[in-house]
Amino acid sequence: MAWIMDTYAMTIGHSAHGVVTGKPISIGGSEGRGEATARGLLYVVEEACKLKKISLRGATVAIQGFGNAGATAARLFAEKKAKIVALSDTRGGVTNTRGIDPIKAIRYKERSGTVVGMPGASRITNDELLTMKCDILVPAALENVITLHNAEAVKARIVAEAANGPTTPHADEILARRGVIVLPDILANAGGVTVSYFEGRRGSQCASAEDHGPRLPRDGGHHAQASRSPARRRHDSRRQPRRRSHPRPRLVPVIWAKPPGSHPAPSQFTGARLSLPAEEHPRGSPADDLSRYSPRKTRRRAC
Fold it and tell me: Of 16, 24, 65, 88, which has the fewest CB atoms closer than 10 Å, so is most exposed?
């Protein structure tokens, strides 16, 4: 995310902290962003347990998916003294009715790349995990894993959707008819996007303060440009209009003299025309060129 923000900033010519979220804390990121999705899931499950009269302490939890959201959720549930009875990833799952230590599972997956085969747990499939007996089922991997075909076999009392769309509409109707509480993904996993929203808003406000804030330094002795960053000054210089490379013609009043041999009064030939100054005139003074005009007809010539 830092690379994306830096590339975008170089394209537009100034910093843009609000263009992406999930950045490192040193460049405008948010503390706790990595576990925000799982922590939000925990808060929603706690409220659902109060509604179902379930004590989270000692409740059995099965988690399908052991990525960022699933692994962090397992650790947070364990901190609340819940019992993790099953975990799984793309290669399969493991189960232990006496409980699985999520910290040991995380370390084992870092070494082997999967939770399958970790000591002290027996192997199961992902489909078996979804239908095993537990208090809280957390699908945190793929969408459409609870369908019309296996919804009747789900034995959990609460289904907390950490993944996006893990329950199909038909399965949702079946679970509702059976009295199973389904915490929808738009609520259960909204912790991550909520923190991202505040991070983006903070970045946008910083950019707005940089664009519209005071330009003068504290001593007030320099021009407004002095308080701008070099990238911002380059960006603002593109908005300046280009200067003309040649001077504009000027209106110079010229008194028309009576041409030689003409009868009308001189007052009839008095006026002003568009001309260059005498020092820039190609033929000398403007009066030297009056002989080209007839007494009855005058013309305007733009130089």
Answer: 24
